[in-house]
Amino acid sequence: MSAEETSATGVMDQESPETDAATNAAPAQTTGELKAAQKSRLAELDRETLIDIYHQMLLARRFEEKAAEAYSGGKIGGFCHLYIGQEAVAIGAISAIRRDDYVLTSYREHAHAIAKGMSPESVMAELFGKATGCSKGKGGSMHMFDKEFGFLGGHAIVGGQIPLATGVAFASKYKGTDQVTLCFFGEAAVNQGAFHESLNMAQLWKVPCIYICENNQYGMGTSLERAMSSHDISQKSCAYDIAAEFVDGMDVLAVREATLRAVERARKDYLPTLLEVRTYRFMGHSMSDPGNYRTRAEIERHQERDPIKLFSASLKEEGVLSDSEFQEIEAQVKEQVEKAVKFAEESPLPDPKELYTDVYASPINTQRD
Q1: pLDDT tens-place values along the chain, 369 residues long
Q2: Alpha carbon distance, N-terminus to C-terminus of the chain
Q3: 278 phi/psi in degrees, rounded to 5
Q4: Could you give the C-alpha distances from 152 to 37, 66, 229, in angstroms and in order?
Q5: Three-class SS state of 275
Q6: What is the rounded CA–CA span in Å between residue 96 and residue 304?
Q7: What is d(CA 108, CA 340) in angstroms, rounded to the nearest whole number?
Q8: What are the Cα distances from residue 262, in Å, to 119, 138, 182, 339?
Q9: Alpha-carbon gap, residue 58 to 333, rounded angstroms
């Protein structure tokens, strides 16, 4: 059985009166069209890069499936937003930047953190609320952070990371470096004023920020068509004279190529870009989401374009990986994830004194007179 066929996707049987959020959206490529386009891009990349991209996508999927299992078992508390189905976006985009570049994203960020270089152990330990987590066990699922790798959050406030990313990009320009900033957010954040203010400022001041809208077509349980008067998010760039592209978010190489073009623009000319990357989440908004706002038929239709299934098929058909090599990668990923869980389970809880750290710049005096 292949990797994608064992994915935990949690579709719902209940019929929903809601219209498919993609009904009035720009038409997606058919599976055949996507595979043909993807294969044409394979020749432009070396085998090592292709294998690394596949490994990262599979690691993100298996990590999230294990996180879902741990959450259901009571080992993870609070909110937990899974990335299953959207892997091509984070992996494709982050594969196009350097280690010293910056990434800011929303609360659905486990895959982004790992793709940026953070260890699965530190991310899983954070989910478990352990002291060895990347945020000392105090951030949880929505607040991953690692300055060493330029991963500046995990942000729980919808759209809250957009002005912050704009500021980070401005700092790079101010210091005269050629670093770029990737800012990931969902389509619901586009309705926030911070999005429009940030894009206006980014173009006005010419800052190297790449705004990546992960349009999974639902803001929590509200479909795109019920929340936006205009469903073409990439066109919103026209108001600020910013370069923009619409990208098929189920094709990891298409995402990578679009990001590379934006990165070149940012590094050479300090210019921002808006990428609308149309994708789809196979799981609910969070682990507590019953998902009764969409039908099984809708989800299964999108699962036919599973980004891992499509990419693995392209790699196999073009002779990049054999069946035995796919199995070997699957085994490596399984070992990585199991190691991360074991590390998290065996790690200590934060010391109660940690309640008083990382709150203010100056340490809090806990001694009372």
Answers
A1: 433 343 333 333 343 334 444 444 455 677 788 878 888 888 889 999 999 999 999 999 999 999 999 999 999 999 999 999 999 999 999 999 999 999 999 999 999 999 999 999 999 999 999 999 999 999 999 999 999 999 999 999 999 999 999 999 999 999 999 999 999 999 999 999 999 999 999 999 999 999 999 999 998 988 888 888 888 999 999 999 999 999 999 999 999 999 999 999 999 999 999 999 999 999 988 898 888 899 899 999 999 999 999 999 999 999 999 999 999 999 999 999 999 999 999 999 999 999 889 888 887 776 655
A2: 66
A3: -80, 120
A4: 33, 24, 32
A5: strand
A6: 26
A7: 19
A8: 27, 34, 10, 36
A9: 7
Query: d(Cα 115, Cα 96) in Å, to the nearest integer?
Result: 11
Residue 282 CA to its chain's centroid (Å) = 14
Helices (H), 211-358: 224-227, 252-269, 296-303, 307-317, 323-346
Distances 362 to 114, 116, 145, 358 between C-alpha atoms, Å: 31, 30, 20, 9
**Between the CA of residue 308 and those of 55, 178, 244, 253, 328, what are the distances in Å?**
10, 32, 26, 12, 16
DSSP 3-state of 75: coil
Prediction pTM value: 0.90
For 34-344, which CATH superfamily applies? Thiamin diphosphate (ThDP)-binding fold, Pyr/PP domains (3.40.50.970)
Q: Quick one: tokens of 292? A: 């009764």
Q: Cα–Cα distance between 216 and 66 in angstroms, integer?
A: 22
Residue with tokens 């006005």: 204
Helices of type H across the chain:
31-42, 47-72, 87-94, 110-115, 120-127, 161-175, 193-205, 224-227, 252-269, 296-303, 307-317, 323-346
Give the Cα separation of 211 and 147 in Å (integer): 20
